[in-house]
Each structure stands twice: as structure tokens, then as C-alpha cells.
Amino acid sequence: MTASNLRAALAAIFLGTAAMAMVVPASAATVSARVGAALKEAQALATAGNYRGAMAKVNEADGAPGKTADDTQIINAMRNFIAVKSGDTSTPAGAKAKFANDYNAGKFRDVIASADTLRKQGALGAQEMQIIAQAYYRAGDYPGCVRYIRSTFSTPNDAMLEMLGRCAYETGDEATQRQSLETLVARSGRPEQWKSLLRLAERSRGLSDHNSLDINRLRMMTSNISTKDDYLLLAQLALQLGNAAEAQSVTEKGIAAKVLNDERSTRLLNLAKTQAAANTANLAKNIAAARAQPQGDALVKVGEDLVSQGKAKEGLPLIQEGVKKPMKDAANGQIRLGHAQMAAGMKADALKTFNAVKAPEKDAMVAHLWSLAARR
To answer: Is residue 89 included in any domain, yes or no?
Structure first.
């Protein structure tokens, strides 16, 4: 829950008391004289801190014969006003006012403890529950925060998912953190949400170079590549794994963005251009050699290079041909197939392919990231 949203929620709680700063107008024509006089006295007594006397005057006004609908409305508003002023938690208005005051005063344990009182008063709504979750976080009770959000919200909104992720991070609960980020990415897919999710993915143990390449491809796709190191890492991984044209394209984008401007970047670009040209010149020979192999990994590799060049319709059939053969790395073959289907606009097929990758765990995680991107 952002600070601005939290302030708005607290303001709404205060406004919901209806009479926080109520003043009985002296010339209120629709309020009977007897009721108006008693309520003016009640207001003065409450302002002076004599809440018992103020409530007695309200009861006097409430007992006046022939009350109008306006009389009743203002009598009820004055009751709320007194409850708010006195901190009387036996009324919804008083309970909500104390709740908001406690939060503003940094009494986060009291805020958390207010849940039962608010529930008894029928005043525990979505805003109050979100503020209680925030209070757990502000109190440093991160495990409590995770438990509260999980047990309270069947379908947490974005604010609560972000809070759940922060609390899970503080407890070292990467599974919950990843789950909350994945849900946020699936809902809206904002770059900053992808950034957090991919950063978490990068910390996974046992990632292969291909896993790292895919994660960084997704960073590029989701507008999370910006620094010199970002561009160089993606370009070097692509070049290392045989996707020279992709490495050339990434390096050129880094140069255009004015973050790659040193000799190392120039050497990388020249090497990528040379290898890309060789791959293009030897494409037919490479395909024939790959087809001659008993396993399909080489065909998948040639197809991946074509897909990374934007030639998905040429690369997809080669990958499909490759995965029909025995594979040294079957999971990678399926991820490459899904990526090619996605690039060719075959969204439903891509999702089916990505979702079929169940193991190894690191490959299943990368395939799931691709499936989230395919839904965009």
C-alpha cells in the first residue's frame, strides 16, 4: 500500500465518522428549537471534555417529542462527534477514530489489536484491513504481516500483494515473494514489477547459461535493460550461446542508447558481426549437419538463432524438427519451442508448451516467466 493510498484510506476512515468536526448551525431552520439548543450545549460540553454531560444533552434532545428527520440525523451525528472526541470504542465512529489516531501516533500494536473491536462494531472494512496489514509491516512483525494478508484476503489487490511481497522479502520467504510478484506481473505487467521478479529469478541457484540468457532477454523485453553492464551481459550471453546476430543487435542498441561507447564494446560488436555473417553464410550447411546428428539439440540451436533474428517462421520448423528427436536437454528444447511459437504469434501454443515444462525446477521457473510474458 503506497503512502498516498494509506493517507487516503486514513482520511476516509476519519470522514466516515461523519461528525469529526461537526458544528450545529445556529440558524438551522430544519432543526427544532428544543433539539438545536440541547445539541449546542452538548457540543460545548464535548469540546470542553465533559463527555458524560454532553451525552446527557444528546439524550435529552433525542427524547424531545415531535422530532423531525433532520433532528434525528443531527442527533446521530452529535453522538458520533462525542464518541470520536472521547475515544469511546463502543461505537463504530469512536472505534474507527481511535484506530486512525493510533496509526498516526505510531501505535501499530494497538492498531493490530483494534481488529476485534472494529469487527464487533461492524466497522472492519477493506480499508481498515489494509491498514492493519501495513501496521504489521511498520511494527516489524513481518511473519505476522504474511500470515495476516494470507488469512484475510482471498484475492489481495495490488497494494496488498506488494505488501505481501515486502514482508515475505524481510522473512526470506522467496516462494511467497515470487508468488506475489508473479500475480502482479500477470495482472498488469508494469516494468518495475518485472524488474523485481527477474531480479529474484536471477538469484535462483543452479541457473544454466541459457537460463540466464532467457532472464536477460525478458529484461530487454520488459524495458529493464538500461546500463552498460546490462547490455554487455545480454550481448555476451547471446554470443556465447551461438546467437551472434542477437548479440550484434543488443550491442547496437546499447550504442544507440549511448551507454556502450568504449573499445570493449566496439570489439564485441565487431566479433558479433563477424560471427553473424558466418552463421548466415553457413546456414544451409549448419542445418544439414544438425539434421545428420542423432539428437535434436543442434537443430534447436540453429532454429533459436533464426528466432533471435526475428525470423520465427524460419526457425520454428527447425526447432519442431529438433524436439522430435532425442534431446540432451529436453527442457531447453521445449523452452525454445515455446519462445519460437510466441515470436510467431502462436500465443495459445506457446502457453501450452511453456506450461508443460515441469522439471528441472530452474527450467520450469524460466518457462513460467516466458508464459507470463506470452500473456502480455
So the answer is: yes
- The residue out of 77, 105, 133 marking a domain boundary is 105
Closest CA to 110 of 130, 129, 136, 86: 136
The mean pLDDT value of the chain amounts to 90
**What does pTM read for this prediction?**
0.79
Question: Where does residue 345 rank: exposed (0-12), middle (13-18), buried (19+ CB within 10 A)?
Answer: exposed
Domain annotation covers residue 225? yes
Q: Are residues 218 and 365 in the same domain?
A: yes
Cα–Cα distance measured from residue 56 to residue 200, given in angstroms and rounded to the nearest whole number: 61
DSSP characters over 259-306: ---SHHHHHHHHHHHHHHHHHHHTHHHHHHHHHHSSSSHHHHHHHHHH
Residues in the chain: 376
Q: How many Cα atoms occupy the beta-carbon half-sphere of 139 within 13 Å?
A: 22
Q: How far apart are CA 70 and CA 66, in angstroms?
A: 11
* Spacing of C-alpha 8 from chain mean position: 20
Q: pLDDT value at position 219? A: 98
Cα–Cα distance measured from residue 208 to residue 234, given in angstroms and rounded to the nearest whole number: 14
Q: Which burial class, exposed, middle or buried, applies to 214 when counting CB atoms under 10 A from its CB (0-12, 13-18, 19+)?
A: buried
For residue 323, give the C-alpha cell. 524436439
Split into its structural domains, the chain has a count of: 2
The CB density around residue 66, as the number of other CB atoms within 10 Å, is 8
375 by DSSP, 3-state: which? coil
CA atoms within 13 A on the CB side of 130: 23
Report, as an integer, the average pLDDT of 330-356.
98
